[in-house]
Amino acid sequence: MTDLRPVQTTAFLQDFADRWLAAWNSHDTEQVFALLADDITWDDRVFWPEVIHGRGDLRAYMDKIWQAMPDVEWTEIERFFSPDSTRGLVLFEQTGGAPAAFGTDRRFRSHGCDIFLAFRDGKLSHYLGAYDIVGMLEQLGAIPPRGSRTGSGYVMSLAKR
């Protein structure tokens, strides 16, 4: 049986992670797109309501990110790669100001990770995002502090607002 997995190295993933962070911190959609396969599968249901398929549909997501967080910056904390160098994860801290619509000058600082699930021809073809949007919204005053409430109790309290 032939192994059809892409041949990648840790050096490739290291370089990709460097270019990834630089592209995001540039706030330039085209720099980010240069790293993505045309038919990218983009799963960031923390921010977006559904999985996105393809760069064309991803543009609206990117526009919304830059609009919501025009001064956001990502700082790498650590990176991890699978032993076979087919997948990677970049743990980051993100900082930025509230969206203009919030009417506040509050700032946020939270953690998250970019998970690179698959590559094809040197481009990212499957992405998964995970980060603390609840902490961000609390810091920005958009939702009340969680306090000692557990996950479902907290969510239910927000629904009663």
Automatic annotation (TrEMBL):
Pfam families: SnoaL_2 (PF12680). GO terms for molecular function: isomerase activity. Residues 18-126 form the SnoaL-like domain. This is Steroid delta-isomerase-like uncharacterized protein. It comes from the Bacteria. Keywords: Isomerase. Coiled coil: none annotated. It comes from Pseudonocardia sediminis. InterPro entries: NTF2-like_dom_sf, SnoaL-like. SUPFAM superfamilies: NTF2-like.
